[in-house]
Write a structure and sequence with these properties.
By secondary structure, this protein is mainly α. The protein has a domain of 339 residues: Alpha/alpha barrel (Glycosyltransferase), CATH 1.50.10. α6 packs parallel to α19. The relative contact order is 0.10. It binds 1-deoxymannojirimycin. 1-deoxymannojirimycin binds next to α19.
């Protein structure tokens, strides 16, 4: 049935139709209330529920928006603080060198290279001071040194092209940003590591270079001029014939000299050499190279230059040569062959034997271990560690002293019974200690072998000469002592001093002091003031005879570094100026008897004839790589110029970083 509604007007103000539009508050309130009353109970419940729900949502979202706002405010405060506290430092890169890749050989494992951790909180600098992003101080100091050189030697030049404090790298050809990374890790493992130049150094006053250091710079420049004019890009300068000799055909002198130029502050020379490395250094060559020599000179030189300059070009080249040398380890015993064809990827022993030299197979470890740390690829370290572990277990040693040869098939020592600290065994002892230091002093087998060997030296090889009672290291051949000492043995005082500095027996230092005196006498007792290659000591006083005797076949001098190297360590650790004075005498005698006026220095045939030392017409690459570098460092009073608590020198004087503790 249809329902009929009747509308009744009760008053004028309420009569919409009669009174027109009424929008008064009272009317609206009453109208709403009426509408509400007209709703069913269900409708009213739904509306009430919706209101309640919206109210709850409102309260909750208000609370969370407050939190977000608060944290936003805090973040921007943090950012401000960060900018104020470490200007110029990218906080995502604390640049802490990692734990050594292989911390403990005893465990036989290879601890992972952990990627660098994020700092927490972000603005806190972490790690020991020597392992952090490099502060501008070092750049400033290097620049100062460089400026000093220019001030003395050349008219003042403007600093054009030099980098400002904002970059990590100063002028040395390589520009890297504070957060520069090496390339991504190889397929094998982990993050690659940063160069050690990316580190902070304590804020210290720059140490100006002195007159003796300037003399070394002058000598270096003279040598370099000869190399540049007559042998550029070749292995060695022949300064008399104004030509060159080739050994591997890889610009050996240039590569060996790179980090010396960096340390001496020779900007232009470094940049020129860098260009050659970038454009002309090619390892894809059908050429046989000696594994040891190319490791210590080329791989070592490239790695240290990478660390000093931060320029990834050198790391790329180091990886290339490192990979090309790896076929040497493919032998039945895993004791590497002496020679590798770096173009063909084949390796072989010398033609006449399947033996390798003990010093050679045990003195490539610092370099390959560092290459693993930098690339994150453990294969390099694994190969060289295997050699050390194997040699550790071998019989045929005599109180820690090793024979000179080892067979690549059987893995056994050969030619037993001859023991020397000279040629073919020397750097075995040096690298025992240096690997132990490089790895953070944890690899106990290395230390054990080193300590035992030094006891072996004391027991079997030490003697005193007459008349001056010089302590020297002779040789032992099938039970017979020989009073013969190679100049090469003069690395030993420096190594002993380094060990003592790192906490080993104090009597190692005493022995080092005695031996460096002997090495100095090997120069001082000779007519030219330069040491021969080999000396024989007199054991009994004879009228008119000095301590040192020289055989005609041994009286050449190859511009070798070992004595100057040890003088450097001795001065660093004792501060005794006599070591600097001895080095200064030696430099002057090199200048007197081996300097070639048209550029370069030459090895000589006869150190006993000052009027005709018989120049040999060859400048060995280690004269620039080692001898002059150690001279420069010896004359320096700046212990931070290659700090020995941060760097370890390889046997070719290329400094590599000591790994940070875990
Ligand atoms: C260098 O190549 C190295 O120092 C090596 O360990 C021994 N021989 C020369 C320098 O004399």
């Amino acid at each position: 049935p249809r329902r009929v509604f009747i509308s009744i007007s009760l008053g004028p103000e309420e009569a919409v139709g009669a009174g027109g539009y009424n929008n008064s508050k009272a009317w609206r309130r009453r109208s709403c209330w009426r509408k509400w009353k007209q709703l069913s109970r269900l409708q009213r419940s739904v509306i009430l529920f919706l209101f309640a729900f919206l109210a709850v949502c409102g309260v909750v979202s208000y609370a969370s928006m407050g939190e977000a706002w608060k944290s936003l405010t805090n973040k921007s405060l943090d950012d401000q603080r960060t900018e104020q506290e470490i200007p110029g430092v990218k906080l995502a890169n604390p640049a802490v060198l990692p734990a050594p890749q292989k911390a403990d050989v005893n465990r036989g494992d290879y601890p992972e290279l952990s990627p660098q951790k994020q700092p927490n909180p972000p603005y806190v600098r972490r790690g020991p001071s020597n392992l952090q992003i490099k502060a501008p101080q070092r750049d400033t100091r290097l620049k100062t040194r460089h400026s000093t050189i220019r001030a003395v030697e050349e008219p003042v030049q403007t600093d054009k092209g030099e980098k400002t404090e904002k970059s990590i790298i100063s002028w040395r050809g390589a520009m890297i940003e504070p957060d520069q990374n090496t390339e991504p890790p190889s397929s094998k493992i982990k993050e690659p590591e940063k160069p050690s130049s990316v580190e902070a150094e304590d804020q210290k006053e720059p140490v100006p270079i002195n007159q003796r250091q300037l003399a070394v710079i002058e000598a270096f420049r003279h040598a370099w001029r000869g190399y540049k004019d007559f042998a550029w890009g070749h292995d060695e300068l022949k300064p008399l014939s104004k030509s060159y000799s080739e050994w591997f055909g890889l610009g050996l002198t240039l590569i060996d000299a790179l980090d010396t130029m960096w340390i001496l502050g020779l900007k232009e020379e470094f940049e020129e050499a860098r260009k050659w490395v970038a454009n002309d250094l090619v390892f894809d060559k059908n050429v046989d190279v000696n594994l040891f020599e190319s490791t210590i000179r080329i791989l070592g030189g490239l790695l240290s230059t990478y660390h000093l300059s931060g320029d990834s070009l050198f790391l790329e080249k180091a990886k290339d040569i490192g990979n090309r040398l790896m076929p040497a380890f493919k032998t039945p015993s895993k004791i590497p062959y002496s020679d590798v064809n770096i173009g063909r990827g084949t390796a072989h022993p010398p033609r006449w034997t399947s033996d390798s030299t003990v010093a050679e197979v045990t003195s490539i470890q610092l370099e390959f271990r560092e290459l693993s740390r930098l690339t994150g690829d453990e294969k390099f370290q694994k190969a060289v560690d295997e050699v050390m572990k194997h040699v550790h277990t071998l019989s045929g040693k005599n109180d820690g002293l090793v024979p000179m040869f080892i067979n690549t098939n059987s893995g056994q020592f050969t030619h037993l019974g001859v023991y020397t600290l000279g040629a073919r065994a020397d750097s075995y002892y040096e690298y025992l200690l240096k690997q132990w230091i490089q790895g953070g002093k944890k690899e106990n087998e290395l230390l054990e072998d080193y300590m035992r060997a030094i006891e072996g030296v004391k027991k079997h090889l030490l003697q005193r000469s007459a008349p001056k009672k010089l302590t020297f290291v002779g040789e032992l051949a099938h039970g017979h002592f020989s009073a013969k000492m190679d100049h090469l043995v003069c690395f030993l005082p420096g190594t002993l001093a380094l060990g003592a500095h790192n906490g080993l027996d104090a009597d190692h230092m005493k022995l080092a002091e005695a031996l460096i005196e002997t090495c100095y006498q090997m120069y001082a007792q000779v007519e030219t003031g330069l040491s021969p290659e080999i000396v024989h000591f007199n054991l009994h006083a004879q009228k008119g005879h000095k301590d040192v005797e020289i055989k005609p076949a041994d009286r050449h001098n190859l511009l070798r570094p070992e004595t100057v190297e040890s003088l450097f360590y001795m001065y660093r650790f004792t501060g005794d100026k006599k070591y600097q004075d001895w080095g200064w005498e030696i430099l002057q005698n090199f200048n007197k008897y081996t300097r070639v006026p048209t550029g370069g220095y030459t090895s000589i045939n006869n150190v006993q004839n000052p009027s005709n030392p018989e120049p040999r017409d060859k400048m060995e690459s280690f004269f620039l790589g080692e001898t002059l570098k150690y001279m420069f460092l010896l004359f320096s009073d700046d212990i931070d110029l290659i700090n020995l608590d941060k760097y370890i020198f390889n046997t070719e004087a290329h400094p590599l970083p000591i790994w940070a503790p875990a």
